[in-house]
Amino acid sequence: MITRTLSRLLVSGLLLASVGNALAEAPKPAKSGYEFVKEETRAMQDDEVENTGFIAVEQGRELFNQSPASGKSCASCHGETGEKLDVKNLARYPIYDKALGGIVRLDDRINICREKQSGEMPLPAYSAELIALETFVRHLAVGEPVNVQTDGEMADLLKKGEELYHLRFGLIDMSCAHCHDSYPGQFIRGQKISQGQGNGFPAYRLDTGEMANLDLRIKQCLVLMRAEPFAPDAEESKLLGAYIMARSNGLKIETPAIRY
């Protein structure tokens, strides 16, 4: 028996999916999800004491300075507070890395460095430890404008990501564009639909009570569409995430943002 919640989701999805086949253009100007949440949620994000995401920042700081049984801590190369990291480079993630043969997300880079410097096994995708480290590092660049590469090797990859962004998924037969390009500002389940920008991630989600990086948020959206989520390391996951972040170019990094 379908629950009332699922029924409403299905009805909403079918209404959205009934839009014509023409691809909606990305909304202009780009607006952060901050502009679509309630006033009290914005106040929570702006207050470091009230912003639950700062727990992850502090956890990430501890892990950043933690020395493994063998090898180096992150801080041994980048400073106790991460002061040796270039915040403008952080604002460029995800990046194209020719040596690694494709898109590298910030959490990918963290795991690569851990394995190289300490011989530690990579932290599991979406684990609290990995997301905390990503949150701490990304927070170092707070206020910097997102600046994902859109030319060169990234150009063709972003086109593939855009195709995925407009692809219909799941039983509800919706694409990311249905919500975030065609209906930003309208309400669904009592919440305003945002443009789906990535500048606030990793973010604390009021709906789930947990931190989520952008890739996990994409996975959660696919589940809502009643679709099979991509595997964490799937090429589709990297392509879609890179495209979404590129759409956020120019928006200031807000990590840790508060989102519904």
What is the number of E strands? 7
Q: Largest beta sheet, briefly?
A: 3 strands, mixed
pLDDT below 50 for ≥5 consecutive residues: which ranges?
1-22
Shape: globular
Cα-based radius of gyration, to the nearest Å:
18 Å
Percent of sequence in beta strands: 5-15%
Give the helix proportion (percent range).
40-55%
Placed side by side, the strands forming the largest sheet appear as 6-5-7
The whole-number mean of residue pLDDT values reads 91
Taking the alpha carbons of the first and last residues, their distance comes to 27 Å
Query: Which H/E pattern describes the elements?
Result: HHHHHEEHHHHEEEEHHE
Helix and strand content put the structural class at mainly alpha
Keywords, please?
260 residues, mainly alpha, three-stranded mixed beta sheet, two-stranded antiparallel ribbon, 11 helices, 7 strands, 7% strand, disordered N terminus
Sequence-ordered SSE layout with sheet pairings:
Blueprint: H1 4-17, H2 39-46, H3 53-64, H4 74-78, H5 87-90, E1 95-97, E2 102-104, H6 106-118, H7 128-139, H8 153-165, H9 176-180, E3 187-188, E4 191-192, E5 203-205, E6 210-212, H10 214-224, H11 235-247, E7 257-259
Parallel strand pairs: 5-7
Antiparallel strand pairs: 1-2, 3-4, 5-6
Helix pairs in contact: 3-7, 6-7, 8-11
